[in-house]
């Protein structure tokens, strides 16, 4: 395959409900949408789901825009590839910038699978017909507000809820949600807000064993693999890594150290579907469980996450809610929806399985560029 044009759009959508994590609060999300085409006019779409601020990772929308325009798009335009899994060879020399890479990699998978008329999920060797969905709930002003949010999604059929936690917002919300929903699959995500060497932090984390959680996600800073291993040795609840794992070498180190038992696989954080699929293979071979995480994706990135979650090892519910949890109007048709807490995998439609509303994307774009071969 040979990509002959790369077009990019900066698009911002308002969130239906403000989202707060241990680091900050947001009311809208800006992502970069990537449209590639080949000489036959086949089109593929990808989404660069980097946050605007460098609080989750060092990337931002601005750095992604720059790397895409200056490095990734030019490299792709001179690269010939057979399989979508080989497209990423175009940028093998470029270190880091995984969110930017993930959007281009996704567009290549979409283009190749549309060209051959197969679904992305079947091209990835997916098997699951639906992905069990879970919602990720931000830090709320009060525990009562949180319980209202949890009730809303439980009533909609979601069977798993993830709570964002931070020091001083951990035991109380966990206890309250567990008391109100004894059978709910419940897990927490600290986004690295704790330190192993802080006695209060450690006490709060160890206390979480009382609430029957599926997992505790990323308690410590990304580089703190040894601290995660020390915590896992003392905690019954499985430790899950998110920000710590950007590539397969870090995953190898985490497995070797026993820094957890579960991996949150995000297409964006791992630099694309190609690496994410390998992470699934390596983690499950080592006896870790995996699940599909999200970055508040619009419909393109969300569809890619659903396709990835069709792989057999995705045994835990993902952050795969319908796009209506976040956005009143999405940029794809049909929109992505959960039914009884599950998102169906569209094996019967080519590529991502959802058509991009190009007119809507163009009308929303605050900035665009096109590069051609
Ligand atoms: O840590 O999983 C995270 C959103 C933005 C940045 C980091 C995270 C998240 C989420 C949202 O938890 C999950 C979703 O997209 O539903
Ligand atoms: Mg996380």
UniProtKB/TrEMBL annotation:
GO terms for molecular function: O-succinylbenzoate synthase activity. It is an enzyme of class 4 (lyase). Keywords: Lyase, Magnesium, Metal-binding. Residues 143-238 form the Mandelate racemase/muconate lactonizing enzyme C-terminal domain. It comes from the Bacteria. The keyword Lyase applies. The keyword Lyase applies. Its cofactor is a divalent metal cation. Pfam families: MR_MLE_C, MR_MLE_N. Its EC number is 4.2.1.113. NCBIfam families: menC_lowGC_arch (TIGR01928). This is o-succinylbenzoate synthase. It comes from Tenggerimyces flavus. The gene is menC.
């Amino acid at each position: 395959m040979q990509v002959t044009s790369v077009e990019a759009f900066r698009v911002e959508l308002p969130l239906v409900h403000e989202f707060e994590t241990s680091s900050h609060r947001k009311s809208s999300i800006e992502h970069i949408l990537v449209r590639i085409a080949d000489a036959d006019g086949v089109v593929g779409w990808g989404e660069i789901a980097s946050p605007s601020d460098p609080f989750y990772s060092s990337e931002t929308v601005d750095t992604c825009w720059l790397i895409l325009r200056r490095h990734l798009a030019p490299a792709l335009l001179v690269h010939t590839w057979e399989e979508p899994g080989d497209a990423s060879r175009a940028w093998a020399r470029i270190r880091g910038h995984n969110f930017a890479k993930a959007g281009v990699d996704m567009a290549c998978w979409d283009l190749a699978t549309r060209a051959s008329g197969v679904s992305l999920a079947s091209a990835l060797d997916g098997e699951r017909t639906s992905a069990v969905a879970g919602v990720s709930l931000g830090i709320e002003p009060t525990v009562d507000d949180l319980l209202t949010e949890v009730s809303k999604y439980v009533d909609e059929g979601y069977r798993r809820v993830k709570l964002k936690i931070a020091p001083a917002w951990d035991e109380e919300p966990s206890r309250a949600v567990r008391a109100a929903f004894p059978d709910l699959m419940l897990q927490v995500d600290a986004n690295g807000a704790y330190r192993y060497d802080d006695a209060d932090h450690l006490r709060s984390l160890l206390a979480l064993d009382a609430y029957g959680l599926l997992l505790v996600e990323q308690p410590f800073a990304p580089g703190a693999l040894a601290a995660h291993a020390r915590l896992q040795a003392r905690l019954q609840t499985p430790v899950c890594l998110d920000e710590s794992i950007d590539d397969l070498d870090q995953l190898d180190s985490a497995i070797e150290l026993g820094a957890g038992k579960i991996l949150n696989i995000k297409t964006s954080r791992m630099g694309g579907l190609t690496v994410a699929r390998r992470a699934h293979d390596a983690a499950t071979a080592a006896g870790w469980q995996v699940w599909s995480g999200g970055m508040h994706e619009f419909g393109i990135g969300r569809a890619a996450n659903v396709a990835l979650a069709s792989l057999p090892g995705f045994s835990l519910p993902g952050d795969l809610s319908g796009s209506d949890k976040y956005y009143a109007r999405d940029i794809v048709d049909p929109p992505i929806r959960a039914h009884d807490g599950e998102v169906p995998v569209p094996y019967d439609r080519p590529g991502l399985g959802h058509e991009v509303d190009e007119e809507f994307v163009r009308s929303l774009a605050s900035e665009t560029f096109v590069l051609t071969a």
